[in-house]
Amino acid sequence: MALYALGDTHLSLTVNKPMDVFGGAWTGYVDKLREGLSVLREEDTLVLCGDISWGMSLEQAEADFAFLDAFPGRKLILKGNHDYWWNSAAKMERFWAEHGFSTLHMLHNNAYEYGGFALCGTRGWFYEEDAGGHDEKVFRRELIRLEASLKAAGERRKLCFLHYPPRYQGYTCPEIIALMEQYGVEQCFYGHLHGGSHRLAVEGRNGSVEYHLVAADYLQFRPYRICD
After folding, report:
1. Phi and psi (nearest 5°) for 167?
2. In this structure, what is the dihedral angle of CA atoms 6, 196, 85, 81, given to the nearest 10 degrees?
3. Distance between CA atoms of 30 and 221, rounded to whole angstroms?
4. Cα separation values, 222 from 4, 110, 201, Å
5. Which among 36, 66, 150, 166 has the fewest CB atoms less than 10 Å away?
6. Which residues have CB under 8 Å from 166's CB, separation 6+?
7. Where are the alpha helices (H) located in the chain, listed in sequence order?
8. In this structure, what are the phi and psi dihedrals at residue 93, rounded to the nearest 5 degrees?
9. pTM of the model
């Protein structure tokens, strides 16, 4: 029994947008993911920290869901900035059920239990969003979602999963950090940073929270083992 995290799988098994075109670590990335995810067992849980599929709809992402569902264990999926297929909870759950994707679950306004821990999370916020013109309404909605997830955890020890990094070199999102510290989050796992941006990642303890970058290309496409 083990808990894992991995972000930014960027699958494109139906849509013609493979990440191989970027070269480097992304060359042959689907095969690398297949090998990396082979560690999963039925009793394991994998949290997928956004940017799951390039599909623009649930139908276009179906082959990518099937790829992930084929591996053993429970997968908890949160939204990334490129998950354009994301839909309402009812539609997503119905689509997964209709296609027999029984291992896929949303991490969105809720929390899950794993070995005494509560697994919480949301997409988060990033400076790129501010650069395009700060959308206060969207930002506040993300804070509400994160707090709803943290509240759903009750008094259990909390792990937080985000797509966007809440802090990295030269940037912080103080509102998200404040929520994590207020609710006693022990560790935060995030993705989004790729290539040369890896060097900007904050790793290890900062304040009361321990941070880990789990973007797939940063981890050589192997899920990060959090605990047994």
Report:
1. -155, 145
2. 100
3. 9
4. 9, 26, 18
5. 66
6. 124, 172, 173, 176, 177, 180, 188, 190, 211
7. 29-36, 62-69, 89-98, 127-131, 136-152, 174-182
8. -65, -40
9. 0.94
- pLDDT the model gives residue 170: 83
Q: What is the pLDDT of residues 117-139, one digit of tens each?
A: 999 999 998 766 665 556 788 88
Instruction: Return the pLDDT at 5.
Output: 98
The residue type found at 173 is C
For residues 15 and 143, the model is more confident at 143
Number of H helices, E strands in the chain: 6, 13
Is 124 exposed, middle or buried, given 0-12, 13-18 or 19+ CB atoms closer than 10 A?
buried
pLDDT band at 116 (very low <50, low <70, confident <90, very high): very high
Cβ atoms 43, 96 nearer than 8 A: no
Euclidean distance between the first and the last CA atom of the chain, given in angstroms as a whole number: 6
Model pLDDT, residue 228: 87
Q: Which amino acid is at 28?
A: G
DSSP 3-state assignment of 34? helix
